[in-house]
């Protein structure tokens, strides 16, 4: 049986079967990518290399540690006027594990802080509406 290193420059097609998703790789370039619905954690995948119209040359298994990608959105402005539209300032995200938001006024004074992505700033400071103006967040 040939080993993966023995294949070298032969034209081969590698097929990866992963959670019922099939990835095709020819000359080192993937034709498709994994679905975002793949779970986090350690998984086992199988690679089979063969020449077109010939029997299998190599079959190998390996493990991979998958992590879902993170997406984070921060608004550029908000209007805390209680009209129900853009009344709070905060992040929205997918697969965010750690979160920390701080909002500062123009003098550098911290006026809001949260470590919960679902807790947003409502435009108040010490129980009163903050002045209209520019604020910085970190």
Structure description:
- This protein is mainly beta and 138 residues long.
- It has 2 domains: 4-66, no CATH class; 69-138.
- Helix content is 3%, strand content 41%.
- It has 1 helix and 12 strands.
- The chain has a 5-stranded antiparallel beta sheet, with no helix packed on it. Strands 9-8-12 form a 3-stranded antiparallel beta sheet, with no helix packed on it.
- Mean pLDDT is 72; it is low at 1-37.
Domain unit count:
2
Give the N-terminus to C-terminus distance in angstroms. Answer: 58 Å
Assign an overall shape: elongated
What is the SS-derived class?
A: mainly beta
Strand content range: 35-45%
Largest sheet: 5 strands, antiparallel
Give the quaternary arrangement of the chains.
single chain
Helix content: under 10%
Estimate the mean pLDDT confidence.
72
Say how many strands there are: 12
Order of H and E elements: HEEEEEEEEEEEE
């Amino acid at each position: 049986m040939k080993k993966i290193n023995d294949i070298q420059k032969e034209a081969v097609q590698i097929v990866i079967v992963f959670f019922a998703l099939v990835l095709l790789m020819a000359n080192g370039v993937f034709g498709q990518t994994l679905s975002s619905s793949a779970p986090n954690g350690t998984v086992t995948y199988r690679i089979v290399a063969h020449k077109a119209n010939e029997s299998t040359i190599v079959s190998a298994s390996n493990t991979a540690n998958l992590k879902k990608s993170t997406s984070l959105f921060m608004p550029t402005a908000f209007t805390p006027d209680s009209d129900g539209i853009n009344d709070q300032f905060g992040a929205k995200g997918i697969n965010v594990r750690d979160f920390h938001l701080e909002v500062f006024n123009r003098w550098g004074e911290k006026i809001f802080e949260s470590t919960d992505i679902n807790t947003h700033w409502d435009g108040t400071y010490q129980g009163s509406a903050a002045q209209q103006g520019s604020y910085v967040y970190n």
